[in-house]
Records
---
Amino acid sequence: MKIALLSVTKSGLKISKQLKMKLSQDPRIFQVDIFHKNVKETLRRIFDDYDAIIGIMAMGIMVRSICGLLSDKRRDPAIIVMDDAGKHVISLISGHLGGANDLTLEIANLTSARPVITTSTDVHGCMGIDALAKKYYWKIKNTDKIVKFNRALLDGAKIIIESPENLEYLFNDQLFRKSYMIKKGEDKIIKAILDKDEIKIKPCRLVAGVGTKKGINEEKIIEGLKKALSFLDLPLERLDIIATGEMKKGEKGIINASRILKKPLKFVDLNDLRLEDTHSKSSFVEDKFGVGSVCEAAALHVAGRGSRLILRKTSYDGIAIAVAVSREKVF
Amino acid sequence: MKIALLSVTKSGLKISKQLKMKLSQDPRIFQVDIFHKNVKETLRRIFDDYDAIIGIMAMGIMVRSICGLLSDKRRDPAIIVMDDAGKHVISLISGHLGGANDLTLEIANLTSARPVITTSTDVHGCMGIDALAKKYYWKIKNTDKIVKFNRALLDGAKIIIESPENLEYLFNDQLFRKSYMIKKGEDKIIKAILDKDEIKIKPCRLVAGVGTKKGINEEKIIEGLKKALSFLDLPLERLDIIATGEMKKGEKGIINASRILKKPLKFVDLNDLRLEDTHSKSSFVEDKFGVGSVCEAAALHVAGRGSRLILRKTSYDGIAIAVAVSREKVF
């Protein structure tokens, strides 16, 4: 996730700087840039370059400045406003699909600001179909039906999730249990069903790229994968594939972990790894293999063209893990 | 003040109805209308007809819907959003000049919602020059300097208010004391001075229209005026003129009250009263004088062309009082 912080006052800039430091610790966040003053012009310039834009300023300035820039709830970045005394942090635009609500909660956690979320499902303690899809990296085909499904759900209706795959792990999610049921389906894709209406859903491919020192055993690797997924607030079951570089072909730990977890393991050729543009760069690995980060490159390669990292390289005890998701925009 | 309430969900509509009932008790509020669904189209239709628009809905819906309608902070209505569980009420647009912040606080008071105000002066416990002007019904000529003055004030600067009139009563206002000083001036208008910069200010004319039964004494009338002004969160000193109908020329109470308070008293001809379009209509008064409300008509007439009621007829113990303010938009 790439985040822009915008401020107009001295105290706003101070908050921006503190927030940048804190947000940069989050392995899901790859870049945090600070902009000061010239709000309107800056927004026009950077609007499409960031996943989230956080304005430390009065609501009115932000609203008036983004008006000409908003296009579509499926494409617009998350827009968040925090007052420049840090009292409230408010999710403004793209609450669900753009992740503004989650980021608002994270910022509230990192600071002493109170989160303000106004989307109807959330204020009534429900998980809308768009929030569900966002959380588990599912693509929704017919987004025009989201409002109808969410409204029914607020009225107490249960939505059936019909899937060819085992999605039992979703029941560990309290908000899921409240509004959804699961049914085994025959079709290849997932369907959310409400009476005679349905929403078509495709899970994106979630790939964990793994790099290890020699001789790391499977328990440690499984533990590392669990930790990595938990950063994304996901259970290990959601993972689709484990990927690593061809130089790890002899590593029993990875091979056994893949077998135990029943997740396919892909070894990526060094030449393919070298083609990927990684976020993390280790000069040691770079010198040895010509790759910035083996785990990131492997994850990106297996997640395919148009994929993106959602967890940058994180290291635990001799293991480095990154997570990539396949192209999300096209159904 | 005319207020529009907009909702999209069932629970939003329920909140609208409760809010309408509560807001209608406020004598500063003359009309509260409820609209449900079709947010974008409704807003386009009603945007210029209301002083304040309150959306009981997710922030994103409101922001996306007003984008094409906003023009200028001196003209746009106050825009407020409340989530449809009534947890937060958020001042969005026209916080100061449009009064959105004050209305947000009032709604929070009337409900269990927490107010969210993001304007920099307010979150830092200061009263900006625009908020000061709004509160005391002053017109600001050079609004382009507001930001500069407010920023200085946030940095701890003191702004000098130079006035030909005695404005000592402002010192009862704690927020005023914090950031302003008063100086006796020679010029006819008020000036806010910061170093070599100045903002020109003209107070609007504030007129209390009074109607009484026969023989009401001055103490009661003064008490009534105090109460009326306190609804506007103003001290009695801010009042410019007392107005009543010519049929009250023999009423000692009003005449003495005017003398004691040192506020000029104007008697308005019946024919002039009849020309005013009052908000309140008493069929008794209508039958007797051909006027809907003597106090409202007198206040409006003396406040002049383009004036408006800011407090509709309120009755206390045989006295009816309304307050009008002279034209605010033109300096």
---
Amino acid sequence: MKPVKVGLLGLGTVGTGVVRIVEGHQHDLMSQSGSPIEISKILVKDKSKARSIHVSEDKLTESAWDIIESPDVDVIVEVMGGIEQTKELMLAALDRGKHIVTANKDLMALHGPEILQKAAEKGCDVMYEASVAGGIPIIRTLIEGFSSDRITKIMGIVNGTTNYILTKMSQEGAAYDDVLKEAQQLGYAESDPTSDVEGFDAARKMTILATLGFHANIALSDVTAKGISKVSKEDIAYGKKLGYEVKLLGIAERQDEHISISVQPTMVKHSHPLAAVNGVFNAVYVYGEAVGETMFYGPGAGEMPTATSVVADLVAVVRNSNLGVNGRRGFVPYKEKKLKTDEQISSKNFILLHVEDKAGVLAQITQVFAQHEVSLESVLQHPNQSNPLAEIIIITHDANKASMNNVLKQFESMSAVHAIKSVYRVEG
Amino acid sequence: MKPVKVGLLGLGTVGTGVVRIVEGHQHDLMSQSGSPIEISKILVKDKSKARSIHVSEDKLTESAWDIIESPDVDVIVEVMGGIEQTKELMLAALDRGKHIVTANKDLMALHGPEILQKAAEKGCDVMYEASVAGGIPIIRTLIEGFSSDRITKIMGIVNGTTNYILTKMSQEGAAYDDVLKEAQQLGYAESDPTSDVEGFDAARKMTILATLGFHANIALSDVTAKGISKVSKEDIAYGKKLGYEVKLLGIAERQDEHISISVQPTMVKHSHPLAAVNGVFNAVYVYGEAVGETMFYGPGAGEMPTATSVVADLVAVVRNSNLGVNGRRGFVPYKEKKLKTDEQISSKNFILLHVEDKAGVLAQITQVFAQHEVSLESVLQHPNQSNPLAEIIIITHDANKASMNNVLKQFESMSAVHAIKSVYRVEG
């Protein structure tokens, strides 16, 4: 049987894992896909570099176009990253009838609709399971597993770096800066950690998940993102005392066809399954009208987990080829996108205030909430030895974001309120 | 566009859920599957019975053959249960070119290979996502999501009734009999609970999961099953003290192509994600050579969760029909089944002994382990106020089952050992 020929763009961590699996599992992959799979060309930056795996030198090239234009390549596996230039290469590959498997969340979050549109026109597959939550097959789960249900909420711990940092801060009572430095030394965080710690990476993944879950073309600009760089060890300690863990959650919600998507550090109740997801692990919690609560847990990154998802996609492309249905099982968003206004976005909130420690202040504070029709679940006043101010922790009932913003604005103008130390969304 | 016509066998809990979803989500289902889906005939036991949903009376029939033989039915949805007679109906439906969606674990565990074989011959789909772990799409995950990996271990909490009972026993320190009675009153346990509490239901589900995960035709008789009816509140309390929860786990393992599958109450370490799966929830933990640890969590039963999986399968059948690939995406086991011997099955173990409280007994006990080359992780001797015997709790390192059986046999013949109170496998 004629082998399916793969052009591999990138031989970094994930690319190396892909070579290991394709070469190591030849027999299994053929049994499952129906054809032998052969990596025929590999794009590298430097052909002469030493590598941890053996690859025959005549497969290597330093030119992506060598691979895109080769008639000897059926499927492109893109694990090199990049956005604009990579997009051009992918569109050119589709123009030449090549299928695509990619692990590139940035590409799919920013240019997914354009690429998928071109693929449909050309009868090609584009698969991207590895772009979100590395080893967890969450994309097929949303497309196939929940095709019959109406998903109303997706909450994801989809960034391993920030989950590692928050877990360490929680378990060791350590400060953000110290843990970040340690994570950088261990290779869990980049030397410029902005994309991870400010929530931008998670926002890209949530763009992809929300598009699939809500069947509408969500744009990255629809996602509001707030990172963890302002999370203090005090916040974590207070949260813990009240029964919460701080997690960087991506939250996509739908109510009556209106959608909101955000990424922010969130107080997650200990009894919620996401609260126990620790270290570099990822998890995606999906709530469906019919199915109720589900959660999918696994490694979010790493050579072999991510390569597993890439090669599973490759198997699916080969199965489709053998059935003659490439480009015909794609996901097509069929709903109009309607975003929630701030009046429609609602959640519980955790607020930590520093206020003057004198009679009547608490009454003033609670009066502000009442005035904006935000009702309170609990109020905790805490003496603070180190300064003459009182600390007040408030947990609200569900309140809309517009009202909450008005409450906070009013606090800013009150002389009795010295600082709004922190505000978190609360889940669970 | 011509609607796909469904013959629904059974209008109990799950059947009612299927009708609700198919009728309530018409537009969404059509957008995703490409065709309208219509339930054209429904098998009921008694046409005159009052129901919680409205169904037009001319769709109802009391004869399964009415549906199987109807040229007006394209897909059979079987949610009535039963084994031998149901198998005959399913084979007859396949002979007539009808596709099958079933939630019937008993049918698939006992007759899966025969039914799938016939389906392949006839170019028909047989889908059974709802047969294991109700709302969790674990079957597609094993077939598609992990197609590139080598799965070495599947551990499942796949029976909600027993997980409810064990959770209650753990959280309230209650005795088995009392919690079982309560579960029966709440409808979580059958009046004859044997199939659930003795592990037979879980064994059937593990037969299906192991077949998919290991690509070999596993038979129900390959699964050893032990239930929870002998689990005492003392066992649970001791486990907790040492950092374990007792869970009824189905465990399917593979090592060098040798497989073992069992169901038994197991001490699961608190840090393991399965330890936190409580109440009637189900979870399946999958370990793959490449991906590492993953876990899939959700409702294991119930009208709407199970119906979600049934209708997702129905959508998949309709998609396949529209692509003309029915019966060609099926799962085909391609590996020879080789079962592990007792010498090859290995695990850590928890053993609780009642022994004579006198000098030298502990030395005798540990001597027995040494003699059979079972090394020990910890030994805890516990004074017991209520009787003149000492309690000894031993946790072994990994030990093979044959050696463990020899150890236990030798204890039985020792006068110093008054009782082997309990033996559990240990995981995590």
